[in-house]
Design goal:
This protein is of the alpha+beta class. It is built from 18 helices and nine strands.
Length: 534
C-alpha cells in the first residue's frame, strides 16, 4: 500500500447540510468500510497573520489548535494545482500563541519568510465539532485509507462576527488521490453535496476583510517544455475547473455580472481544451464531457445574455435619453419600461443558474471530471499512434495545434470585408478557440511575441463580440415575453430604438473592424513551424 507523502495533506472538501450528516454517516460507502469506532471532539483553532495579511496574500496558513491539554502549531502551503494537496508542518507549542522558533523544516521556514512572532495577530478562530471515521477502499496493495471528518461549527472574529460551516472532509491517509473522488461520488448518491474549494483559512480571511466574493479571471497556466501531452491535458482541465469553481459564490449571489461571465469563460476554455485534445480522448469520454459542458453552459447562457443586454446595450441608450433634458420624454418612459421587463427576465435567468449550480448533476460533473483526471481516464484505450503521443513532450504538439487553429481562423475570415453576420460569428468562434489554445501553451514560448499576438487577437475578438451582442439582443427582445407576461405599450418602440442605435454604431465602426482583421492577419505568429510528421 502506498503511503501518503510526509508533510503533505491530501484532502477533498464537500459542503453539506447539517440535517444530512446522519444519512451520510450511515451510507454504505462509510458504514460498510469503517475500521474502528467513530470519534468526536471539539477543535478550536486560531489563525494568525500580520496586520497587512502577508501570509494570506500567498495563501500560506499559520494556526494554533487546542488539542486536549496541549496546543499544536501548523503551517500550510498554498493548495497544489490539483486542489487536493498542500504542504503541512506541525509541532507542539506551549500555548495558544505561535512560536516560530520551534519550526524546524526548511521549506516551512521559507514559506513564512522574514516573519517574527511579534508581527503576528490573531485574525479569526474556527470552532468545530468534528466526528472522524477511517474507511478503507479496495484491497491489498491497491487499497486506500481515508479519514472521513464531519465538521460542523463556525468561524468567528474577535469582534463577534461569525459564519457557519458544515462540511465533510475526506483526507487521504494512504493510497492514491483518485480514491477520494471514488468515495465522494458514492457519498453524493446518499445526500446532496457540493465541492468546496475554499479552505477554512480563505473563508476566515474573507470574513475578516469584510470582502464580498469577487469574480476571478483564469490564472496564467504554466507548462514546462518537458511536460508530456497527458500532463498538459491534466493541468489544463484542472485549471479550467478551478477557474469555474472559483466564480461559483459570486455567481450565486447574482450581484456582479462578471461572475457568471467568468464561469462561462471557464466552460468555453474547457470545451476548447477537450476539442484540442480530442484525438487522445476515447469517444465515450469525449461525448460525456461535451454533453455536460453544453448542459451547464446552456444553464448559464441566458443570465449572461441578459446581463450584457442590460449593461452594454440598453444602459447607454437610456443614459443618453435621460440626459436629453426632457427631449424625447415619451421615449425615456418606454426605455424605462423595457429596462424593467429585461431586469425581470434577468432575475428569472439567475434563478435557473442557481438551480443548475446547486444541482446533483453539477456536483456529479465536477467529481466526475476530477476522477477522470486523477485516474488518467484517457489511458483507457487501445495502444495506437495517437495514444503513444500522450507520453511525448507537449511542445511539438503545441506548435502543430497552434498552427492548425491559426489557419482555421484565417480561412474562416477569408474575404472579411464582405462576410455576412453569420459567417463573422463563425470567425469569432474560431478566434476564441485560437486564443484559448494560445493561453494554454503560452508559457512554452518567449513571452513578448506571445503577448503581442494576444493583443491583436483580443482587439479583433472584442470588436466581433460587440457585433454578436447586437445580434443576440434582437433574439432576446423577441423572447422578452415568451413566458406569457404582458408587454408595456411602449416596449416595441423602445426595442426599435435600442437596436437602431447599435446598428448605426456597428455601421460606423466597420472600417475600423476591417483594419483590425488586417492587423491580425499581418501579425507574425510566435510558434515554430511544426514538423510534417507531427
Amino acid at each position: 500500500m502506498a503511503e501518503a507523502e510526509i508533510n503533505r495533506e491530501t484532502e477533498l472538501k464537500l459542503a453539506a447540510k447539517p440535517e444530512d450528516f446522519d444519512r451520510l454517516r450511515a451510507a454504505s460507502a462509510i458504514a460498510d468500510r469503517a475500521s474502528g469506532p467513530a470519534a468526536t471532539r471539539t477543535l478550536e483553532s486560531t489563525y494568525y497573520d500580520t496586520e497587512e495579511r502577508r501570509l494570506a496574500a500567498r495563501k500560506v496558513t499559520l494556526r494554533v489548535r487546542k488539542t486536549g491539554d496541549g496546543f499544536v502549531q501548523t503551517v500550510k502551503s498554498a493548495p497544489d494545482e490539483d486542489g487536493l494537496g498542500r504542504g503541512e508542518w506541525e509541532c507542539a507549542v506551549t500555548s495558544a500563541a505561535p512560536d516560530l522558533t520551534l519550526i524546524a523544516d526548511a521549506e516551512a521556514i521559507e514559506l513564512l519568510g522574514s516573519l517574527s512572532d511579534s508581527e503576528l495577530r490573531p485574525v479569526f478562530t474556527s470552532i468545530v465539532e468534528r466526528t472522524t471515521q477511517d474507511v478503507t477502499l479496495g484491497e491489498g496493495d491497491g487499497a486506500a485509507v481515508i479519514e472521513v471528518a464531519f465538521d460542523r461549527g463556525r468561524i468567528e472574529l474577535p469582534d463577534g462576527r461569525s459564519t457557519d460551516l458544515c462540511e465533510v472532509e475526506l483526507e487521504l491517509k494512504s493510497g492514491t488521490p483518485a480514491a477520494l473522488y471514488d468515495l465522494a461520488q458514492e457519498l453524493a448518491q446518499a445526500a446532496p453535496l457540493r465541492l468546496e474549494m475554499r479552505t477554512k483559512a480563505e473563508r476566515g480571511h474573507a470574513l475578516a476583510n469584510g470582502s464580498a466574493d469577487k469574480a476571478l479571471k483564469a490564472e496564467k497556466l504554466v507548462l514546462e517544455p518537458e511536460t508530456t501531452v497527458e500532463g498538459a491535458v491534466a493541468r489544463i482541465v484542472r485549471a479550467c475547473i478551478a477557474h469555474m469553481v472559483a466564480n461559483e459564490a459570486v455567481t450565486l449571489a447574482g450581484e456582479d455580472p462578471e461572475g457568471v461571465h467568468q464561469m462561462r469563460v471557464a466552460l468555453r476554455r474547457l470545451r476548447s481544451a477537450t476539442a484540442l485534445f480530442r484525438p487522445f480522448i476515447p469517444a465515450a469520454q469525449y461525448l460525456w464531457l461535451v454533453g455536460e459542458i453544453k448542459w451547464l453552459a446552456g444553464s448559464l447562457g441566458p443570465a449572461r445574455d441578459w446581463d450584457v443586454f442590460g449593461e452594454e446595450l440598453l444602459a447607454p441608450v437610456r443614459d443618453a435619453f435621460h440626459k436629453a433634458d426632457g427631449h424625447g420624454r415619451s421615449a425615456v418612459e418606454d426605455l424605462d419600461a423595457l429596462a424593467a421587463a429585461a431586469e425581470a427576465k434577468r432575475l428569472r435567468a439567475y434563478e435557473s443558474v442557481r438551480e443548475a449550480i446547486r444541482s446533483d448533476r453539477y456536483t456529479a460533473f465536477l467529481l466526475g471530471v476530477g476522477s477522470w483526471v486523477e485516474k488518467r481516464g484517457w489511458r483507457d484505450q487501445p495502444v495506437s499512434e495517437e495514444s503513444v503521443r500522450l507520453f511525448q513532450p507537449v511542445i511539438g504538439l503545441a506548435d502543430h495545434l497552434l498552427n492548425k487553429r491559426h489557419k482555421k481562423a484565417k480561412r474562416a475570415g477569408h474575404g472579411f470585408a464582405h462576410l455576412p453576420v453569420a459567417q463573422r460569428h463563425q470567425l469569432r468562434i474560431a478566434l476564441k478557440k485560437l486564443r484559448y489554445a494560445v493561453e494554454f501553451f503560452r508559457s512554452l514560448y518567449d513571452d513578448k511575441p506571445v503577448r503581442r499576438y494576444i493583443q491583436q487577437l483580443a482587439a479583433l475578438q472584442d470588436a466581433l463580440g460587440h457585433l454578436n451582442d447586437v445580434a443576440t439582443a434582437t433574439r432576446l427582445l423577441h423572447e422578452l415575453h415568451d413566458d406569457g407576461s404582458r408587454s408595456a405599450p411602449g416596449e416595441p418602440r423602445a426595442a426599435g430604438i435600442v437596436i437602431g442605435w447599435h446598428a448605426r454604431g456597428v455601421a460606423d465602426t466597420e472600417a475600423a473592424l476591417v483594419a483590425l482583421w488586417h492587423d491580425f492577419t499581418d501579425t507574425k505568429h510566435f510558434w515554430s513551424k511544426p514538423d510534417a510528421g507531427v
